[in-house]
Amino acid sequence: MDTDDLTAELLRELRTAKPYPAVSLTLPTHRRTPDNAQDAVRLRNLVSEAMKRLEADPAVGRETRTAIGEQLDRAVAEVDPRRALDALVLLATPDEFQIWQLPRTAPERVVLSDSYLTRNLVAAKAQARPFWVVTVSADRAELWGGTVDALHEARVGGFPMTAPPVQSDPQREERIGDTPSIFSSQETRAFLRSVDEELRAVLAADPRPVFLAGSAQALAVLDEVGESARSATGRLAKGVPAGTAPGALLEELRPVLDEARKRFVAAVEGRLDEARGRRAFSGGLDEVWAAVREGRAGLVAVEEGFQRTVRVTDEHLTPVGEDADLTDPTVREDVVDELVERALDSGGEVVFLPDGSLTEHGRIAAALRY
């Protein structure tokens, strides 16, 4: 599964307590050859490590260990190296397995617990910046779920939508001497009004930025008859033929997405400046970690490539080197992902900015609630 599949409902399900052990494996991967040639071997080694841990654990019986081993073997067989991104997460119990490909790296690790490890999934989804795209014409509307890396058709709500066939009126055409514009017909307006209503329901269930694509006429009528479309983050005033490949549509949208990204980054920087002005600002990993733990962080901004291994002592974070003992429970390899998950769980907003945006603040900053 991709990060776009991580809904709030699925996240709650993943976090639900399970009979011990629920196994979580995380592995940094490579998108391209020749680097990705090593990933399959490293994944097998990680599974072997998981099985050794299960065998050494007196709380895990033979039957349970065998069942989990079978699930992990099935998962490994289904991993598609052609879809590799920056990290792979395998989740397994005796009854199931899940495969997640993430556009954000994660440390190599095996975790045995009474629930799945979710921090890397949550952080990857936040960084991926999911959005919706609606392609519209006079008689067809499709919904697409997108991230910075990919686009896929989303069959949710009433999408895709097709307008009922319109009966021609030869006598009317003979009277007026021409065929009226399809966008002036009541049938088309009613159809686009229903598209707007379905979009409103989708946004209520899964709020995201919305981008619209369609002819100028189609977008204009959609604005006239509805409400949801008016707040679109960006628009591509170009018709999208039926059957357009997701990759081709994403490339067409790229200038619109890039422009929206620039506006978004500028808005976040403005919010951080305003927070500094009212002395409600934290900068640096240790300060932001403390603010998040206390539930004071309303907005957390993180550079996209920022990750750090630290030791937690007396509720403070101390960076450690590559030679750190990763079996030490006070050492956190992915403390930034953990911080992101905590911030979101406490109702905060987390945004990722281009590398270099927060250099003077230690690559991470927060606007505080109080």
Distance N to C terminus: 38 Å
Share in helix: 25-40%
Shape: globular
Low-confidence stretches: none
**How many runs of DSSP E, i.e. beta strands?**
17
Sheet having the most strands:
6 strands, mixed
What is the count of DSSP helices, taking H or I runs of 4+ residues? 10
Structural class by secondary-structure content: alpha+beta
Order of helices and strands: HEHHEEEHEEEEHHEHEHEHEEEEHEE
Mean pLDDT: 92
Q: How big a fraction of the residues is strand? A: 15-25%
What is the radius of gyration computed over CA atoms, rounded to a whole number of angstroms? Answer: 25 Å
Assembly form of the protein: single chain
Characterization of the model:
With 370 residues, the chain is an alpha+beta fold. Helices cover 38% and strands 22% of the residues. It contains 10 helices and 17 strands. Strands 5, 6, 7, 8, 9 and 10 form a 6-stranded mixed β-sheet that branches. α2 (39-56) packs antiparallel against α3 (62-78). It starts with 7 loop residues before the first helix and ends with a strand. The mean pLDDT is 92.
